[in-house]
Specification:
The chain has a single domain, classed as 3-Layer(aba) Sandwich (Rossmann fold), CATH 3.40.50.300. The chain is built from 16 helices and six strands. It has helices spanning 3-8, 26-29, 32-36, 55-67, 72-77, 80-83, 97-102, 122-126, 138-151, 161-169, 178-191, 200-205, 207-218, 224-233, 236-240, 275-288; strands at residues 17-19, 22-24, 45-49, 110-113, 130-135, 195-199. Adenosine-3'-5'-diphosphate (A3P) binds next to helix 4, helix 9 and helix 15.
Length: 300
Amino acid sequence: MSDDQLKMELPPRPELFDFHGISMTKYVTATWERVQNFKARPDDILIATYPKAGTTWVSYILDLLYFGQTSPDRLTSIPINKRVPYLETTDGYIDTGIDLVENLPTSPRIIKTHLPVQFIPKSFWEQTCKVIYLARNAKDNVVSNFHFGRMIMIRPDPGDWNSYLHKFMAGKVIYGSWYDHVNGWWKKKETYSNLHYMFYEDITEDGARELDKLCSFLGLSPSLEEKKQITDEVQFDNMKHNNMVNYSTSPWMDFNISAFMRKGKVGDWKNHFTVAQNEEFDEDYKRKMKDPTLQFRTEI
Ligand code: A3P
């Protein structure tokens, strides 16, 4: 079936439902048993994020680090969602995430997930896999999710901005509470040392520095030239025009509504929040984010 035909046969947007205490849709729960029983390998690398934290950015960085030199062809022929599959997804078009992961020919396998930490298949922990968590400040994260929800037809309709913002604050959005997600993963670092916690704002501020930290975590030592190539390649404008990473091949996304690579900025929230919304959000944020060791920057 061509992408155009698929576009004409879009299913209705899915409902959110409570799934073990987290709001989810059928597109991320349908293969639950298989996901939970997934057999991780010791060299698997898991990238975990709350949606719209910059998952594709870090996925591409990792893909380039591991395969950019040895298999350059895959960069121009295989879309990123097949190179770094999304473990729990089942959208009926790109194969289920779990099938894609199990059929990955690469070593290591680089795998993406948006699951909160308590839902991660236990074999990742048993195999002490390397795990990278990428977090983004709540205000930019909610704005990015709002625009993404408008353009991706296999997510619930976000509604208008004000009602979406309140759903986000209440955790009534896909993958549940942002606050619990970032905190749950932050706490995991205390008991699981093979976890590298990164921030979107830090990569924006100094991509080369963050790449060095990432390489040191992964035990990689690329040449200076290779690192320069990677930091150039993953610049927002380069990724925006790269059809293998900008999701232009997805039949579920309506690019007339919004782009996948939309703005890529820290602080775009200022163009969305009213003064009153900002005050309410800040008050609520203080109540929910009690751990002083986890700090986000909403501007740089
Ligand atoms: P915006 O909607 O704010 O533009 P994910 O990959 O988790 O779905 O996240 C998508 C968000 O990350 C989008 O945010 C996208 O623009 C941003 N992003 C992706 N690649 C980026 C890059 N190279 N530099 C900055 N932001 C990037």
